[in-house]
Amino acid sequence: MTEQIECVDIAIVGAGPVGMTLALALAGGPYSVLLIDSRQRGAWAGDPRALALSQGTRQLLERLGAWDTDTCTAIDTIHVSQRGGFGRTLIDARDYDLPALGYVMRYRDLAAALDSPIDGGRIWDDCAVIDLQSCGEASEVTLHRAGENRRVSARLVVHAEGTPADDPEVRVYDYRQHAVVAEVRPLAGHARRAWERFTPDGPLALLPIGNDYSLVFAVPPDKAAQLLALDEDGFLAALRAQFGSRVDFVASGPRASFPLALRVRRKLTGPRQVWIGNAAQSLHPVSGQGFNLGLRDAWELAERLLENAAGDPGDAATLASYARGRRLDRQGSIAFTDSVVRVFANDLAPLRVARGAGLLALDLFPPLRHFVARRMIWGARAWP
């Protein structure tokens, strides 16, 4: 087999939404950029997953020309409560003079909006990464594509694909929960309201999408298996029992489940390498922070690289500056999500009372509620 060499300034490994966001943010700049993906281009076309996107993410995507209003459902209000305990809070977009608190969009629609403006010659799809070595002035990525080996020499390699691997640089905490996901149809419509309901088994989220809800229910692994094994009527009955009487359900679609863990890469950068999105951290889906955090990773990395447009994109000082700049947003999002999961996962009576008092405080003291809401919408920019 022959071996070809491609020389670029920046190679982005992973052409999912985070990798494509970075490529678009760098478009028109001084750097040559190559996207490398393990899947065939357009493989996302049949992906039915729903994504929760914050208003801050919408603003970012609009600046890139990659926002498709027709394929998203707005979230006007978020109702937060706990099963078997008092206290609740309601977060309303009108309190912040915003068109919506966030949006729900299918993965395939977001990927299509990001993929459309990308030059096809700048994506190598269906690639298997065989090796990566960083030395001197460049990193070298060895790939297998279309029956032959190729080498890509890049001054910077950006890892933007997949959940962090189990290696010494990745800290892992197993939540001992599985997320059961499905689409369910409410009896009376959703009025663009999202629900976050904390149950003894784990958080249950309902996100409006089209005429339905996208359900994400975190439960112990054995209960996840039980929920998957139920017929439709049995599943809807189990959902009603967990959620309560505020919403009734009349139909559900196919169900799936996946394990939940916190995975955090200790160092975001290495010699001529940087990790962003799920390659840098993967979070519990409660509060919908992880994906939005990954897009902010891509945006800020592009800003740092373009600030140094006359220099070397793999310069250690530039990468260190990026890592420092992401520290507050990254650590804050991880701590916020992790603490919510741990505090609400324990069903001891004293904690249930304390949680109820906390939810009541959010409802009675607008400044506190606004702080939490801004944190969910804009990340670190909400912090004083």
Helix and strand layout, with pairings?
Layout: E1 3-13, H1 17-26, E2 33-36, E3 50-54, H2 55-63, E4 72-75, E5 77-82, E6 88-92, E7 102-106, H3 107-115, E8 123-124, E9 128-135, E10 138-145, E11 148-159, E12 170-186, E13 193-198, E14 203-209, E15 212-219, H4 221-229, H5 232-243, E16 249-252, E17 256-265, E18 269-270, E19 273-275, E20 281-282, H6 290-307, H7 316-345, H8 349-364, H9 366-378
Parallel strand pairs: 1-2, 1-11, 2-8, 5-13, 11-19
Antiparallel strand pairs: 3-7, 4-7, 5-6, 9-10, 10-11, 12-15, 12-16, 12-17, 13-14, 14-15, 17-20, 18-19
| CATH class (first level) name of the domain at 3-52 and 111-169 and 263-340 | Alpha Beta
Residue windows where pLDDT falls under 50 for at least 5 positions? none
Quote the beta fraction: 25-35%
CATH architecture of the domain at 3-52 and 111-169 and 263-340: 3-Layer(bba) Sandwich
Using only C-alpha atoms, the radius of gyration works out to 22 Å
How many helices? The count is: 9
Tertiary shape: globular
Number of β-strand runs: 20
CATH superfamily assignment of the domain at 3-52 and 111-169 and 263-340?
A: FAD/NAD(P)-binding domain
